[in-house]
Amino acid sequence: FMNLNLPNILTMSRLMLTLGFIFCLTKAGLGAIVMAIVLFTCASLTDFYDGYFAKRWNLISDFGKIMDPIADKFLTLAAFFIFARMHIVAEWMFYIIFIREVLVTVSRLMVMKKGRYLAAERAGKCKTVFQIIAIAFILIFLMLREASPLMPWGDMTVQNWLQSWQRGINVLMWLTVILTFLSGISYVWNNRKIFFLDLKEIIKIS
């Protein structure tokens, strides 16, 4: 089932990098958060290059079609879940992102089992970019917060600066959640004929 080619190896490495990212992100200390940033950056790069090499060298496989979106969602959802537990991101924001990503991924895999393929839409790609930017922004905030005792400025200056960064996170997360929700609506609407046919088949079977 799994072809040992470079794109699939990169996809599997993203899962391993995500596990390391989760481990570091749940640990205290500046070194742990810096390592989490490094691992997230590497995982994000594998997301780009597995698709790039698969298309460039015509190495698209069934394994890659299934595992690539799963690995993507594992990385982003793990990050937002931990941020919610840290109370940096509101829990309801995580739930909206989680429900959208799981429903879209599961529906895409179900359609794929029937020999059809739902291509990624522009709204979905923009959503992914915003999610990655939001995660990176939060990771930098965590790094700065851990490093704040080492900064040469006064405590009040540092606290005011971190509060401003937190407000920026809130704005970015609102934009990310709205775009995530709208991209989900767009996905359902644009593929409504396929979903309607599948629903008719289910009704006939039942």
Briefly, what is this?
By secondary structure, this protein is mainly alpha-helical. The chain has helices at residues 6-25, 30-56, 62-85, 91-113, 122-147, 155-190, 192-205.
Fold and architecture overview:
The chain has seven helices and no strands. It is globular. The relative contact order is 0.11. Helix 2 runs antiparallel to helix 5 (122-147) and helix 5 (122-147) packs antiparallel against helix 6 (155-190). The protein has helices at 6-25, 30-56, 62-85, 91-113, 122-147, 155-190, 192-205. It has 206 residues and is mainly alpha-helical.
Fraction of residues in H or I helices: over 70%
**What best-fitting shape do the alpha-carbon axes yield?**
globular
Order of helices and strands: HHHHHHH
Number of helices: 7
Q: Beta-sheet strand percentage?
A: under 5%
Please, what is the average pLDDT?
Answer: 86
Our Rg estimate from Cα atoms comes to: 19 Å
Low-confidence stretches: none
Record field, number of beta strands? 0
**How would you classify the helix and strand content by structural class?**
mainly alpha
Q: Outline the biggest β-sheet.
A: none
| Separation of the first and last Cα atoms | 31 Å
